[in-house]
TrEMBL record:
Heme binds at C385. Keywords: Heme, Iron, Metal-binding, Monooxygenase, Oxidoreductase. SUPFAM superfamilies: Cytochrome P450. This is Cytochrome P450. Its cofactor is heme. GO terms for molecular function: metal ion binding; monooxygenase activity; oxidoreductase activity, acting on paired donors, with incorporation or reduction of molecular oxygen. Belongs to the cytochrome P450 family. It holds the Pfam family p450. It comes from the Eukaryota.
Length: 454
């Protein structure tokens, strides 16, 4: 799709522009995006073109290339050693979250909101990996736990996920009529204050040679310089920490909420998954991360959830220089949308593409780490999600523990076929209406209780 401002050079040359509807004056094609841009662009592609256009032409950048972030993530923050050192933390936090939900359901409340349960659980795992809060000073500890901190993070996530017209129309950005940038600055100032105190707290501990050997803030503070002698500034550290929080919380919780919604909508799939769990792990001990490779049906459920509900259905990229795709000229600084949603539902790639049918992945092995373009929930190429190892593990393991330890059902009176599956478009695409579910114990009580008394 083509909107505003074609470069002079390209106006003159004899190029083939990607096809698209005629844009509006000043607004270009923005009105065509609508409330669910991934669906609308997919429909547009189906109706208007016989090819598979994925292009949105626009004249300025969303983000700079951040190859260095990926390197720091993969080679320094999420090393195999750190991954395994947090294994106990992950299990404790998941069981703590599940236990809490069961207590609520057994204690008179009829059901729980799964977005809140899973969101808190994911946030606790990520913040413990980042901050190792057990070893923070009382002040920093109290601060991290305050509703204010959680609220600030929520605000950052909401604003980062909002549709900001200035991203698409350069002149809009200058005037900021919605006051969006003002709000953004205010919330980032709050985040910055919190983070500064956490960094100071870690630095103090470091100087006093006490504790905090293990967490990610510590890893950032003690990171040696790059080959060119560049040390990370505190602003860069805060940015990376925010990346971990933004990338590592709602993505996981939302994927699991979608998976549970599909399982509760089709109880025979839920039963089959729990039967696999019982035959591989049983009910005498809790499922471990090391059991995951032996649970192929669970894997298939996760892959099918990634396919049908990619949390980032539109990947936003920019062309750094003029290039050509399928014979079309793409000028430098063009905003490119890769419509993962449309790819994952392409009838030429998948039979019955709109149906949740995990069995399709039992015999068809696809790589979710960006090698197979038919399934790319984490993107692909240089901008692929740097936290995908942790993301995949968390989704599989949280789901495994939920399936093993809980009898899951919809609240009384809600029929599976009536469960709505509406989406809400934003930075990620969660359910529009939170999933409400009843969680009752499915394993002996001591298995759950023993793991939260730590
Ligand atoms: C189910 C879990 C997850 C999914 C589905 C997911 C998906 C994605 C996708 C699709 C992208 C954009 C790729 C692109 O632009 O082509 C992305 C970027 C990113 N993800 Fe994830 N992610 C998940 C978990 C995580 C976790 C656990 C972390 C961190 C601990 C993380 C950190 C990031 C960061 C920092 C980026 C931005 C990279 C950049 O700007 O170059 N993600 N993720």
């Amino acid at each position: 799709m083509i909107s505003l401002s074609k470069k002079k050079k390209l106006w003159k040359s004899n190029v083939r522009w990607p096809p698209g509807p005629r844009g509006w004056p000043l607004l270009g094609c923005i009105p065509f995006l609508g409330a669910c841009p991934h669906r609308n662009l997919a429909d547009l592609a189906k109706n208007c073109y016989d090819e598979n256009p994925v292009l949105w032409r626009q004249g300025h950048w969303l983000r700079q290339v951040r190859g260095c972030v990926a390197k720091i993530f993969l080679m320094e923050l999420f090393t195999a050693k750190r991954f395994s050192s947090f294994q106990v933390t992950r299990k404790q936090e998941i069981i703590r979250g599940i236990n809490g939900a069961i207590e609520i359901c057994c204690g008179g409340a009829k059901c729980v909101r799964m977005d809140l349960i899973l969101g808190k659980l994911a946030m606790n795992i990520v913040t413990r990996m980042l901050l190792n809060e057990g070893k923070l000073s009382d002040e920093a500890n109290a601060m991290k736990d305050t509703d204010d901190f959680q609220q600030t993070l929520k605000e950052v996530m909401t604003l980062a996920g909002s549709f900001y017209t200035g991203d698409f129309i350069p002149w809009w950005d200058k005037f900021d009529p919605q006051g969006f940038k003002k709000q953004m600055h205010a919330v980032f100032r709050k985040y910055d204050t919190f983070m500064q105190r956490i960094l100071d707290d870690h630095k103090m501990k470091l100087e006093a040679a006490q504790g905090t050997r293990d967490d990610i803030v510590y890893a950032l503070l003690t990171r040696p310089s790059d080959v060119d002698g560049h040390y990370l500034s505190e602003a860069e550290m805060k940015g990376i920490i925010l990346d971990v929080i933004l990338g590592g919380t709602d993505t996981n919780s939302s994927t699991i909420e979608w998976a549970l919604s599909e399982l509760l909508k089709q109880p025979h799939i839920l039963e089959k998954a729990q039967a696999e769990m019982d035959s591989v792990v049983g009910k005498e001990r809790l499922v471990e991360e090391s059991d995951l490779p032996n649970l192929p049906y669970l894997h298939a459920i996760v892959e099918e959830t990634f396919r049908l509900h990619p949390v980032a259905p539109l990947l936003m990229h920019s062309s750094m220089e003029d290039c050509e795709i399928q014979g079309y000229r793409i000028p430098a600084n063009t905003r490119l949308f890769v419509n993962v949603y449309a790819i994952h539902r392409d009838p030429e790639v998948y039979d019955r593409p709109s149906e949740f049918y995990p069995d399709r992945f039992l015999h068809r092995k696809l790589d979710v780490h960006g090698k197979d373009f038919a399934l790319m929930p984490f993107g692909s190429g240089r901008r692929i999600c740097p936290g995908r190892g942790l993301g995949l593990l968390l989704v599989q393991y949280i789901l495994a523990l939920l399936l093993q330890t809980c009898n899951l059902s919809l609240p009384a009176g809600v029929k599976p076929q009536e469960l709505d599956m509406e989406e809400k478009f934003g930075l990620i695409v969660p359910r529009r209406n939170a999933l409400k579910a009843v969680l009752l114990p499915r394993v002996p009580k001591h298995l759950l209780v023993d793991h939260v008394s730590f």
